[in-house]
Each structure stands twice: as C-alpha cells, then as structure tokens.
Hints:
- With about 950 residues, this protein is mainly β.
- It folds into 7 domains: about 30-100; about 120-175, Alpha-Beta Plaits (2-Layer Sandwich); about 180-470, Rossmann fold, CATH 3.40.50; about 595-680, Immunoglobulin-like (Sandwich), CATH 2.60.40; about 685-760, Immunoglobulins (Immunoglobulin-like, Sandwich); about 770-860, Immunoglobulin-like (Sandwich); about 865-939, Sandwich (Immunoglobulin-like), CATH 2.60.40.1930.
- Helices cover about 15% and strands about 35% of the residues.
- The termini are far apart.
Amino acid sequence: MNNYLPKLPSLLIFLLLCRIMAAAQDAGGTDSMRLRYSTQHPADTVAPLPGVLYLVKFNKSVPVLKLSPYGLLKVLSNNCFILSAVPSDPHLKKNMVYADIANCNWKASDNLVTSITLLPATDSIAVQVSFKDSLTAMTMARISNYRKDYHTAVVKLAVADWPAFICQEQIHFADQVRKARIEMIVNTANPYVNRINVAQQLFPDFNGKSIAVSVKEDRFDTTDIDLAGRIIYNPDASNTVTSHASTMATIIAGAGNTGALGLGAAPAAGISSSDFNKSLLPDTSTYYRNYNITIQNHSYGTAIENYYGVEAVAYDQQIASADTIVHVFSAGNIGTQAPASGAYQNLVYANLSGNFKQAKNVIVTGGTDADGRFISLASHGPAYDGRIKPEISAFGQDGTSGASAAVSGVVTMVQDAWRQQHFSAMPSALLKAILLNSAKRPFGTMPDYKIGFGSLHAAHALQTLQDKRYIVGAATNNNTTTTDITIPANTQLVKITLCWNDPAAAANAPKALINDLDLRVTGTDGQTYLPWVLNPYPNADSLAAAAKRGVDTLNNVEQVTIDNPSAGIAHIAVQGKQLSGRQSWYIAYEFVPKQTFVWQQPTTNTLLTANTDVNFYWETTYTGNGDVSYSLDSGRTWSTIISGLPVTAEHLAWFTPAVFSKAMLKFQLPDTAFISPAFGISPMININVGFNCSDSVLLSWSAVTNASAYQLYTMGKTALQPYQQVRDTFIILAKSRLNSTYFAVSPIHIAGWEGQRGYTLDFTKQGVSCYVRALVADRTSDNFVQLTLSLATEYQLQSIAWQRYNGKTWETLQTIPTNGGLLYYYTDQQTWEGIMYYRVKLTTTDGRIIYSDVSMVQLNISGNILLFPNPVVSTLGIMDPQVRARQVVITDMSGRVRIRATITNTLEGISVAELPAGTYTCVIYYNGSRIFSRKFVKQ
C-alpha cells in the first residue's frame, strides 16, 4: 500500500485542476442553461437590480418552496431557476453556482428555445403565443391564426427578431406549433375491469341518451353500424377517417350491433367529431353550444411538456367558465421516458404527453392491466409543479387511448343520470369528485403518481350519485364551512374527496393553483384527519414514497380516508385560503362495508362465449385462500377451476367449456362460500351467405346442440331488431321485404333462454353473388387454363356447365352434376395466346338458369407472373421470372385496400391469414405501372 503514497500529491493536483477547469467553464458561460437563458454574468454577490430577473444555478436539487420568497418565475431544471431576486439565505448561497442576469427566453418553452438556437438568423419561424390583452399593436410578427377567446395566436417572425419579440411586455409565453399524434391504436376493450358491465346492468336507463360526446382527433367511420342514427355531423370535422378514432367512439358509445366488442359504455349517446389537426386548443364555445357537447375525449398527445402552457391555460379557463364541460385526456404512452427539462429532468416520472394535460380542471387517465395494476407503458405524473397526475386510471392494456375513452364513456353515463334526475347539466367538478372518490384501490393504499386516485369503477360512481352521497358548497377567503355525515356500523373504510374548478393561472406560471381550499375531517374518534399528500421533491425515492397526511397547497382535488371507523357522526370542514373570489366546491363520499363479497362478472344475465378465454371479477373485504369451481346443473355437482387462489386477487381467467348451458360459480373459503348468479355459456354462431340473387338471399348457420330455434336479427335505425325466429339452420329472404342488408343470429335454448348473438354481416359484401362465391381462371405452367369455382351453397343446385367465349358465342366445355362440395375444378387444354374469357352456367332443380361473372386470363408464352395457390388458406405465393422491386396491393370486392407490400425476389409469400374468407384482387405495380391483376379466393 505504501507504494501508492508518492502518487497521492499528483492525484490531488489533478483533482484540483479538474475543479478549476469546471469552474472556469461555468464562468465562461458554456453550459447549456447559460447559452439559452443568460445575458450577463455578474459576480454572485451582485446586489439585486430593480426589474432584473436572474438565472440562478445551484450545485444540487433545491425544493421549489424554498425559492418562493425570491420570486420564482420558472423551473428550468431541478437545480436551475429564473428568480426575481438573488437568494440571500446562507444555505442557498452556499450551494449557488452562479446568478446571471436572465434574458427573455424564460418566457418560452424549452423546446422552442432549443430549436431557435439551432436556426440561422435569416430563417423565419412560426410560434404560438399567449398575450396580455390584444395583438393589434404587435410588431416584428405576422399573425396567421388568432383566438381572442383564449388570448393566444400563431405568429410568424424572423429568427433575427426573436430576442426583441419575446421581450415585449404583452407577450406572456411562446411555444412551438405542435401537431398531436394518437397515443396508440387499440384493438380490444374490456368492460369488466372498470365495472362498466355492472353499471349497465344495475342502471340500464343511464345509457347516455340525453348526452352528446365529442371525439377530438381525426374522424371516426360514420358508416359504422355501431354508431348508426346517433352521429352529430359537424362541418369542421377532419377529412381523414382513422380506425383509432372509430375505436374511441365505439368504446364510448358503441351500440354493440356488430358484436360484443362493439358495445360501448353509453350506447345511446350522440357522438360528434372534432379535428385536432386544426388546433390543440379547446374548440370554440359555439361548437360546444350548438351541438350540446358536454364531454370531449382526447386520446392523443405530443412530446413530454412539463410546463403550464397556452393549451393548459385555455382548458382550465374554459372549464372554470362553462362549469359543465368535462375534458378527458389520455396520459400518454411514453411512461418509460424521462423529461429533458423542468423540475423532474432525467427522472422516469412526469412524462405526460402534452402541456394540455397539465391543466388542473381536466381529467387525465392513466393505464392499467386487467388486474388494475399500473402498466409501465402508461405516462404518469407528477404534473410539472408536483400535482397528482393522472387523476384516475382505467384498463388500457395496449395504451392509454382506450383507457381515456372508457372514462369518457362512464362520464357520459353519470351525466345522463344527473340530467334525468335534475333536468340540467351536471357541474363538472362534482362529476370529477364522484369519479375520483368512487375509484377503486386495494385496501390500505393511497393515491400515487402512477394511477392517481385509483382505477375507474363505473358502478360505484353511479351508485354514489343514486344515493346522493355528495355535498355542494362554496368558500370565501379565510372562512370555513362545516357539514356532517353519518358513518354506518361495520364500515371498513370511509373515503371523502373534495374537488373544485380552479381559475386558470397565467401561462408559464411556476405553480398552477390559484384558489387554495383545505379539507379536514374529524372522525367519530375525535381525531382530525388531513388529506393524503405526495412528496413532489425531484428524487425517485421521494416520488415513489407513500402518501402522508398533510396540508395540500398544490392540488384542486383533496382526499381523506379513515380506516375502520366507529359508527357515528364525522365532521367535514372546508376552509378557503388565498382565494381570488368566491369558490364553489363539491364533495363526494363513500362507505366500504366490512365482510363483503360481490361477484362483478358474471352477473345476472351475463352471457359468456363457449370454448374461449374469459375473465371473472369480484370484490371482497375477505382475506385468505379458497377454491373456485363451476356447475352446469344448478349446483348439484361442481367442477374445480382452481384451488388455493387468494380471494384478494379479485380476478380469475377461465377457458369456458364447449357447451350451451346455464352455469354458476362458487368461491369456497374455509368457513363460507359465495355462489354467483346463474349465467349463460353459449356458442356464438355466425351467418354464411349461400346465394345473393336479384330477388332473394339464402342465409345459413351451423346447428347448436340444445338449441330448439334460432333468432334472426336485422338492423333498425340505431340498433339490431328481432326479425324472425326459425327452427331450421337456414332462411331464404325475399329482398322486396327487407329494409336492411345487415343480419345476425343467436341460438334459443330448449329451456327458452337466448344465447350469444353472433357477429353482424352485410350479405351484399361477402363476395357471394347468385350461388357463386368466385370463379377464378389461372394460367398453368404449360399454358393451360385452370378454372376454380367456389360456391357458397349447393342448395337446390343440380348441375354446373363450364363455358368459354370463342369470340362470337359462349360454348359449353363440360357439364357436370353437383357432388355435395363447394369447390369445383376444370382444366382447359385448348387455349391460345391472348385474353381468354370463362364463365359457369348453373342449373337449379326447378329449372332456373344462373350465370357467374366472367373471369378472364391472359396467356403470355414469353413469361408471366403466377399467383398460387388459389383458393388460398394462409400464404399467397407470387412468382415472377424477373428480379425486380414490385408493389403488391390486395383489395376486397368493395375496392378497399386490405394489404400493401413490396416484394423483390422471384418467389415470395404474402400472409393473408388475417383476411376474412372471400374474393380479393391482387394487383402488382412496377415503376408505377400496373403489370399484373388477378382475383383469388381466401378460404
């Protein structure tokens, strides 16, 4: 060890040099903060100058509250701030690296400042600004978009003019002009996780029929039968139709006409579209007023934006003013990213996608899995100033888009319930209080920065409203309002949530809260309980720490819980502090009883699909392990599903048996058992089109064991309606008597109850004409023509004649009787170079003659592209003698593009496994010109 002692002085000298170099670098103004936000570098001991702002950097993180006495204007990072005065506190001064005179760039977003520093002075840039009164006297910029209602505009200016422009007193804040992007395309929904199914069963009348909802993004499919008859057309909607927008609209308000996954939370609500490409600001008051919009869903985002920007101000302003409009946002799907600036720089927290989600009065929705657990994909809080975000979470296995839509759907149900009870629009802060208070969390857990106040619970929200477990009040400065609630016996938990719509703060404000209310609850034990408060300090351990009771000075939502309270009177006190005026507030409360077990799925009238994966849910205050079993004979015998399952799991996946039967579940604990209501297990049968002739159509389906009949449905104005009940597995419909081309079918059990309805189809779009599904002509390798006939049915069909056009007439090549199959082949060996035309002539048992469409093939002896096999099951082969890059486009019979691909090899395969059965056209392009086109049949 002593061998290293001679080297110690050299090491100390090296470390000292490093420190001197680092200090010199700071003094030289080369760090990024100085480059962007500093104008001069005075000594740290400089006396405060009137009207001068300072860029102050510390050598470690500093709590924001400690800087409030020095006029905190902006948090640039956890150790760098814009202040009105240089800190005089000895501890702060000790840790201060420098205190420069700041330039005006602090009035802009970090992303905008960074982009401007990279642009040459000769360039121009478009920015979005928030202004004081008006822009009539603006210099150095040209206004391209002006919103007087929110004191904001988009302007274009020269980069060289930026320093003078941003320093104008009338400019409060400037930001980039950003374009939103959808969070994620969602392909599944689960109404059971958030108890939407329970709410629909318990409160069937609250289906959204008195409410209009807006989906702000691109346009949803206005031809979707799940939205039929309820679309509110808007001339300002986007011209682009997307599946994402259609999915959001369906989760919110789908009628379930296409199938079970097409049923939304509020299937009777009106649904409108608003274009997010035009502006990220709220729509005009005219839009909401003219179309009676009281809910708007926003399943989109931008980048991480940790500041109170123009959009956040506008949404807070609109909600506080209108009082009855609810905006629901997805938190975002960038939960694994860290912000590059702000108080939470470089921490995997505070990664909400868009500053509009920093608003106080909106509802931001996080994402959970089927067990209600946070998913890492989901963006989460805190907000830029430490507030709780998201406020609530919902099922969003594939992202928070669907979670937001689920919350919007439940908001629609609650608004509808209020309107039916009170004949007026519901205050948005009351709705928010009810939604957050009724959210579900495991017993003993508190709000956090990942799932907010808990997981959405539709049934509890509506029950809160139904039981009138809410309080309405108002506060004035330094006054306290008190009210009492009676806690019943055997209560495990009482939960009380206070919410108010806070006035908008100024853009770029370091703290958003304006009116501060304090909630206190005195329990039946005489103890005072304060709200749960999270630690907003910019440190991963602090942000992950459990909430503690304390005085909340950040949020406009406060929640108090009391575990295992005694029965009696609890006193609620709301105190107004630092109010800008009279402030309305709303409280919701809930009592969770002890010793409860409630099946949430299945419930009465639940229908599960046979032979498929399903999920069961329950809620309980019991603990311990038990066995779950099912019975198909009214409880006489039981079959075990799983043993030793913790009852607190509250969730179980099961693969249903292939039966058509009533069933029950039982959760057996050591000393008690809980049996579910009887529910149905049913096969889901789908319709096939046998023929689609000019005067009639044949629909058929598979037989179901234990079915005595089948109920046929057809589309009405807004929903499927019973059409006819039949005992056969097919029906021939006269087209003259039909009002719709959409049909679905369900089995009727021999005991009289109805089973699962199958998917709805449009019989005109199944690729079936009069008996013929497709006739395909293909050139073989020896230049013969292989004909493939695919029939939809052989019902009353007697013979098939293969015919070829010889240039003058149609000649019959061969006539064969039908043989019970649906596929027939014929090879024409008498071919010639050029285009050949074929058809089939069908003869029925009653003498009717039916011709197929004409199929053509071009014979090119010098070489041609081959498409095989045809019909195809999963992979379509393409062979081309030439090596070249080609574009493949596969369309269905309606002309809609289903697959696009680029191929380069002489032999390639394209997967068509996901395509529904039917006839398709494959077109191949080379250098922009079509070189090949052929129909094929997908089985």
